[in-house]
Amino acid sequence: MARAAAELKSVAEEARACTRCPLYRNATQTVFGEGPVHAKLMLVGEQPGDQEDLAGRPFVGPAGKLLDRALAEAGIDRGKIYLTNAVKHFKNEPRGKKRLHKRPNRYETEICKVWIDKEISLVRPVLILALGVTAAQSLTGRRTIVLSHERGHSIALPDGHRGMVTTHPSAILRMPDETARRAGFAGLVRDLKAAAKLAG
Ligand code: URA
Q1: Is the pLDDT of residue 74 over 80?
Q2: Which pLDDT score, from 0 to 100, does residue 6 have?
Q3: Is 71 a residue whose pLDDT tops 90?
């Protein structure tokens, strides 16, 4: 355990200096994963957003707040899970004083996979829950993910780990009306509960 924790720390340190793709140029810092080194459940998001980029921690902005509410409703302690992202730098386009979120492309996601692979091999979670399509593509290696069909089911990942996919919290925030947002939130809670049950 102490050895894995030390290795994870040193990988995080290495990732801090990552220039493997151009995304580091517009970002403040690398946002590495966080959580107990041998967490049974790992959650993987897309990439840090504006607030995560500034804070240096995953899921601390609006999507993180929604995720925190869903975790609480699912009875999952955030302190007991490992939270990370498929891409470790905030991809954005500066627009005046704002930085507009841009979805990472396939090249950026694939090149960043080296870090998540290291996190997975050290944490060795029982179940990895992909939040949204980018994380699901990164973890499965597949280009096509049909969230509406695939969500909530246990799947085998190419590296032998057990996985599951669900909606990204940001997608719920972007839903057009309160009814859709409520249904989206309930779906996320349901999938979180299923993931936690499988993780044990
Ligand atoms: N969205 C993500 O996918 N990850 C974060 O850390 C924050 C927002």
Answers
A1: yes
A2: 97
A3: yes
Q: Domain coordinates of the chain in residue numbers?
A: 2-199
Whether ligand 1 lies within 6 angstroms of the CB of 53 is answered as no
Contact present, 51 and 166 (Cβ < 8 Å): no
Of 59, 115, 165, 167, the one to substitute when testing ligand 1's pocket (max ligand atoms within 8 A of C-beta) is 59
163 within ligand 1 shell (Cβ under 6 A): no
Q: Give me the chain's average pLDDT, please.
A: 97
Which pLDDT score, from 0 to 100, does residue 1 have? 76
Query: Using a 6 Å cutoff on CB, does residue 58 contact ligand 1?
Result: yes
The phi-psi region of residue 6 (left if phi > 0; otherwise alpha if psi is between -120 and 50; otherwise beta) is alpha
Closest by CA to 29, choosing from 55, 11, 59, 3, is 55
Q: Which two tokens stand for residue 41?
A: 């459940």
User: Which CATH number does the domain 2-199 belong to among 3.40.470.10, 2.70.70.10, 3.40.630.30, 2.130.10.10?
Assistant: 3.40.470.10
The pLDDT of residue 130: 98
